[in-house]
């Protein structure tokens, strides 16, 4: 059974230092939990660039293209509508809706993709089993390490966290698949 | 220009000279003070205000009911003034929403730090204002239950909407604006809802905030994606906010009516939107910061900045007025000239001069630094700007319609009690939604304030290293 070992630090600097120590010791399945985004933590965990902009671009262009084609098809092909002799299809009048639908599709994609990436909604994540973990959204800077073996490994990680200056340490059982 | 390392704050760092956060507080203290009124039971004043708001919302319900039962005939609209209050209120409310998006999105892209304490507040305002705005064109349809005819769906009528009309563009613009504003607001809110969950005193509060925060646990991986997503949404909202009021102005500018058919409308409408929106933010923020004890995070520096924005956008609006007059003269078109001239001396002249007073003269107060930080002056001025901008929208909609090309068709417009009830009712609905927002949601973004605290500390430390040079 695998476990999350959680350690709470008093500041972002202490957390970054602890993450460096853990990585140097060969622990790879690390995460951090902070009340606000900390750039140094991203660097310490070597988090790569987000793919979100690409997804948003594809969704935005797709939405805009769909809107443009719909306007062309409905007003010029399927039901030609002559309004005062103006052209049945004209780009300038199709652009506003194409733009709006492009923005809408990109925004929905961003939000939807974030929810999928986060695995949200997920209100019963094992880290919430530790009562002290409540401080992660207030003023606690938590490091978490996923440890596979239950024996000496756990104690070793706990000791590492305490040595790095953790003021509280907690162990929770990881659910399958996390 | 001298070379400046972008990583190094300049000696005259604005974060130090104009503190955006006053006093020293720990992260825990910020969480506690910014959530204090969320977790505390509501005060008597809150209940009383809510009572007023709900009474007004009931009036709104009655007015909507009468409109649905009787039809648009219950309004004061006539021919030629077919648009009147409905569209005036629509344009005014939509414009108010724009300040929220400007503060939260455009200032985020410009990396203006003073947005951090007021963005949540202004975004909530956007949501409620756009909701109020959407009601008017919907009711104005006459048969609101057929609104879906404006959306292209394969119907048995085998007809499609006419997409070369700005009215169909409006549906796309306002719908997109409401959706994107909601997503942006909620995404920014998730981390703070988690803080509310983790500091909740009752089991029930913990349960509901737990559900609303969707299981946010502040993971670094999440924060990284969250920040990218938030920035992207801001990037999308920025052209969106410009496009929405541009499309609203097309409703007028594309028509051939004298007084409407002009190219200055899009920038003039967007400028006016930001102007009125900032005014309403100030109207609500000044009492709220006092009542909720937010003076330490919403400081005089914020108010000063907003007063400057009022001054600048006030001049954008004034420029619009000048252009309207210039083009009326330059066009050589007698109808155009008549509509413009009749505004000064005709039946709506008092409103025209009220508009000039509120929108052009009043903002000039803010050339004086002392007045920009005087909350009483600022609050009074912001109210006047709200009045002035509503008057402007009214004049734009009604005065050209009431005197078009054919003098025999001219008619004056008089609002009925239903018109007034809809206007007052939406204000009360807005107020009610706002009170609920203040009670249930942290009005200032805690995660951003904590981040800002770190930046201010760093700037101050750097200044000390420089030996306190000014």
Short description:
The complex is a heterodimer of chains A (178) and B (470). With 178 residues, chain A is of the alpha+beta class.
What can you tell me about this protein's structure?
The complex is a heterodimer of chains A (178) and B (470). Chain A has 178 residues and is α+β, with helices and mostly antiparallel strands. Helix content of chain A is 48%, strand content 13%. Chain A has five helices and four strands; from the N terminus they run βαβαααβαβ. Chain A is rod-shaped. Helix content of chain B is 70%, strand content 0%. Chain B contains 16 helices and no strands. At the A-B interface, β2, α3 and α4 of A face α2, α6, α8 and α16 of B.
Structural class of chain A: alpha+beta
Reported for the largest beta sheet of chain B, the result is: none
Strand order of the largest sheet of chain A: 2-3-1-4
CATH topology (fold) name of chain B: Formate dehydrogenase/DMSO reductase fold
What percent of residues of chain B are in strands?
A: under 5%
Proportion of helical residues of chain A: 40-55%
Unreliable parts of chain B:
4-11
- Name given to the CATH homologous superfamily of chain B: Formate dehydrogenase/DMSO reductase domain
CATH class of the largest domain in chain A: Alpha Beta
| Named CATH topology of the largest domain in chain A | Alpha-Beta Plaits
H/E series of chain B, N to C? Answer: HHHHHHHHHHHHHHHH
Radius of gyration of chain B: 24 Å
